[in-house]
Structure formats: structure tokens, C-alpha cells
Write a structure and sequence with these properties.
The chain is an alpha/beta fold and 266 residues long. Helix content is 38%, strand content 19%.
């Protein structure tokens, strides 16, 4: 494993790299960090890929205090990592909030991106009743409550090391500026990624857990995302929640490896 930090206007982005071969870049969702992909990296490396796990701006070991956490800028951060590693073009994998960022990256610098994978992408903006709005406001300001909320997002399975990972995640979120970053990555921003999706020319894989609690109908959400693209496929990960790469890593890896095998440049 090697680690790196790439300078950006406003701070630095931390990442780690495993393996050799065509590059795959992994970007986590709000509140998490690059260890979210700890169970997905080994099978991808074993399949012959160089895998870079990124700490999204404001998270993990990346710096805080950014003027914006909008997905357009997160996407630019991912491109900066690809340039820093100098191993592109890359397949970009975005989970949850980062699923929006990879779309902007692919359209801003298509020469650096040969494919996209969206895990748990939000096609529509969530509509919350007043009680849920109050609850979400509290969760987004408390590391402890966020940790409790995070625990509810899994399906039937849970990683054996989930409790340890969550303790580490919550400890990171207690650092100054971290919860502001959590709120920042999901703050409404224009343009929405769905407006940019029709401009994507690379192949796209949409992955969704069949038990993702963030959606009334995960399958319908996955199909809605797929229809936005010229060349895309939607796949469901059985019994997985919002983080299929964590609770069903082998099954998720199989889908990714199958996609990477037919992805030009990967």
C-alpha cells in the first residue's frame, strides 16, 4: 500500500493505493472515509487492478474548511487524484453522495475517465416529512447520532468488524470541521447530477442493494438512474443495504469485475 495527498485550492485530498494494473478510484458517501471500502479493495486487487481509495474532502485524513463540498468539486478532487497517480484513465466508483461526483468528473475530463459505477445513487431529492427533517438535522450535527444512523443502513448482513469501523468513523467525525463537511456534501447544489448524466459517454454501472432503506423501491431508483445514460446497466445486490461494498463485498466485487472486464481502457 502507498498513501498520497494531492493539493487542491483550499486544502488537500488524502488517498491510498493498492495493487497494480488499470486504475479504479473509490469514493465513499457522507460521514464515512476510505476504510468504507476495506472489504472491496482486496478482491479488486486480486483481479488485477490498481485501486485508489479516496477520503472525500472534509472526511478521513483529507483537510476540512473547504469553501464548498458540492459534487462538482468532489468530482474535481477525484480527477486530481487520477492525475497525481498518473495512471489514468480510471474507472470511478462513487457511493451514495459521491455517486453524483463521479458524473461531473466523467463529463469534465472524459479523457481521464473510462467508466463509472454508481452505488446507491439518489436520482430524486428525498422528500422528508417534518419529523424526519428534525431527525436528520440532529443526525447531521452529532457524531454519536450519525453513528447510530449509519448502523441502520445495512441489509441482512453486517461486516464482522462493523462496530470497530463505526467507532473509528465517529471518532473522526468528532474532529473540528468534520460534521460541517458531512452537511456540506449533501447540501442542495446546482446543477443536479441528473442534468449532467445524459452527457456521459463512458459506460456506466448502477449498483443498488435490494434492501437499501434509503429508497421506497431500490429497484425503481436503480432503473431510473440507468435510463439517464446512453450506455448503462443496473444491477441489484441481493440482501444488501445502502453499502453493498461493505455488507456484500464479494457479490459487489463480482459485479464490478464483470463491468471492468468489458469497460474500454479498464
Amino acid at each position: 500500500m502507498t498513501t498520497g495527498r494531492v493539493r487542491r485550492d483550499g486544502g488537500h485530498i488524502a488517498y491510498e493505493v493498492h495493487g497494480d494494473g488499470p486504475l479504479v478510484v473509490l469514493a465513499h458517501g457522507m460521514g464515512e472515509n476510505r476504510a468504507s471500502f476495506r472489504h472491496l479493495v482486496p478482491p479488486l486487487v486480486a483481479a488485477g487492478h490498481r485501486v485508489a481509495s479516496v477520503d472525500v474532502r472534509g472526511h478521513g485524513e483529507s483537510s476540512v474548511g473547504w469553501p464548498t463540498y458540492a459534487p462538482t468539486e468532489v468530482g474535481a478532487d477525484l480527477l486530481a487524484v487520477v492525475r497525481d497517480i498518473d495512471a489514468g484513465p480510471a474507472v470511478l466508483v462513487g457511493s451514495s453522495s459521491s455517486a453524483a461526483a463521479v458524473v461531473f468528473a466523467a463529463t469534465d475530463a472524459p479523457e481521464l475517465v473510462c467508466g463509472l459505477v454508481q452505488i446507491g445513487a439518489f436520482v430524486g431529492r428525498p422528500k422528508l416529512n417534518p419529523l424526519l427533517r428534525v431527525t436528520r438535522r440532529a443526525v447531521l450535527r452529532s457524531p454519536r447520532l450519525f453513528g447510530m444512523f449509519h448502523r441502520t443502513l445495512f441489509g441482512v448482513h453486517r461486516p464482522a468488524d462493523d462496530a470497530a469501523y463505526r467507532r473509528s468513523m465517529v471518532a473522526n467525525l468528532r474532529e473540528p470541521g468534520r460534521m460541517a463537511a458531512v452537511r456540506g456534501v449533501i447540501a442542495p447544489a446546482e446543477p443536479h447530477w441528473t442534468a449532467r448524466a445524459p452527457r456521459v459517454r463512458q459506460p456506466v454501472l448502477v449498483l443498488m442493494g435490494t434492501r437499501d432503506p434509503d429508497f421506497p423501491d431500490p429497484g425503481a431508483e436503480a432503473r431510473a438512474a440507468r435510463r439517464l445514460y446512453r450506455v448503462a446497466e443496473a444491477r441489484m445486490v441481493e440482501e444488501a443495504g445502502h453499502y453493498p461494498h461493505a455488507d456484500r463485498p464479494q457479490r459487489t466485487a463480482e459485479e464490478l469485475i464483470r463491468f471492468l472486464a468489458v469497460c474500454p481502457g479498464a
